[in-house]
Amino acid sequence: MSVVGVRAAARRLSKTKAVLRDPEDLWRCFPQEKRELLAKDKSSKGSWDSPIAQLLARINSLEEFCTLSSCSGRAYLWTPSAADLPTPARGAGAAPSLPRRVPRKCVAPETWRFHVVHDVEEWDPERHLRNGAEIPAPDEVVWARFEPFVLHVACRSLGTALGLVEASRRSFPRSSLLSFRRRFVVQIPGEDYVDLPYFFSARELNAPDRETFARYVASVMEDKFEANARRIRTLEADLAHLASGPHS
Questions:
Q1: Cβ-contact 245, 159 below 8 angstroms
Q2: N or C, which terminus of the chain has less Cβ within 10 Å?
């Protein structure tokens, strides 16, 4: 990020009405805050996902950056809760023969999520369901979802934050400055998202054409995992050349 770009971004931030933290204070306190942040657990399973462990270690080896929450990408089955579903259709245009199960993109905390995998080789929902590990209600619609890589990084200054955004955008074009009040946080989100109905009723597990559809969904998940992995590899290569940014 050029000096001109950093100064322009700083001017835009200075015009906001939010109470901003003193950049000098953030710069001075960042090393201690980084130690405290890295000492805390940042995931529900208690460790980094293995596909991105090397990437996170590389970022944290740079004194201006500290990784926060992250996910390497995952696939899972899920059933929408009442909070995920829209209001039932009414009137002559309604189609009562179709299930009212088109959820929002965001999964509510109470949603039932199962068969969560971080490696395409582990994706085998048919066996998982047939073994009776977790069977939804007979008329419950089950969705198959892939959520791509996502990473949040705390940065020591505006300059280093914008430098990280610039370095990330070849692989993850939607990278952006997410927060600037308490600390500068960069968000690096993936784009290889997919969500599709897996079956509308548990009775479909025994349908004659079930195997063909299951293979199709498996191929979609494989494509998403591969595209996600390519982006991560590109990001690793680009960040290998990321130098310390200016103090701003």
A1: yes
A2: C
